Amino acid sequence: MSVNSQVFIGIGANLGDAKVTVSKAIAALAQLPETTLVAQSALFGSAPIDSTGDDYVNAVAEISTRLSATDVLQHLQAIELAHGRERPYRNAPRTLDLDLLLYGDEEINTNDLQVPHPRMTERAFVLLPLLQLAADIHIPGKGLAREYVAAVANQRIQELPTI
């Protein structure tokens, strides 16, 4: 019998009605098999990084799941596709982006999956919502997430009013 893992997922969108899309994605996470939605951060607006286009709407969700990291990734990609996700080029604007940020305290490095997410400590739109859910969260191989906040302080981000 598998044990539940604490998993954090980064959510972002900047095409279409991004607030609605992010909210629908969180609802879809709650429907995953053998999974419970534990918490979700507030929604944040952030400027694109290494890209152009409209501002993003971002959030982080925490789930508890018996699914393997690979299975979670497959479900995340299916949710993205259901919301019209295309990948024309790196950092392209997107209808929905779901990133597996943390899977318990595991470090995973395969061709298809890297956990912890390799750029999570460089992104305010990941760190601030993550810390809203887990102020003392430890990133395997990196240390406390809050120790990286000062390095992203120049990135434009703001908490959005609730829908």
Structural commentary:
Helix content is 23%, strand content 28%. The protein contains three helices and ten strands; from the N terminus they run E-H-E-E-E-H-E-E-E-H-E-E-E. Strand 6 and strand 7 form a beta hairpin. It is an alpha+beta fold and 163 residues long. The strands form three sheets. Strands 1, 2, 3, 4, 5 and 10 form a six-stranded antiparallel β-sheet that branches. The mean pLDDT is 92. It is globular and about 40 Å long. It has a single domain (5-159), classed as 2-Layer Sandwich (Alpha-Beta Plaits).
Question: What is shown here, in short?
Answer:
This protein is α+β, with helices and mostly antiparallel strands and 163 residues long. The protein is 23% helix and 28% strand.
List the SSEs and their pairings.
Blueprint: E1 5-13, H1 18-30, E2 35-40, E3 44-46, E4 56-65, H2 69-82, E5 97-103, E6 108-109, E7 114-115, H3 124-133, E8 138-139, E9 143-144, E10 157-159
Antiparallel strand pairs: 1-4, 1-5, 2-4, 3-4, 3-10, 6-7, 8-9
Keywords:
globular, alpha+beta, Alpha-Beta Plaits, six-stranded antiparallel sheet, 10 strands, 163 residues, 28% strand
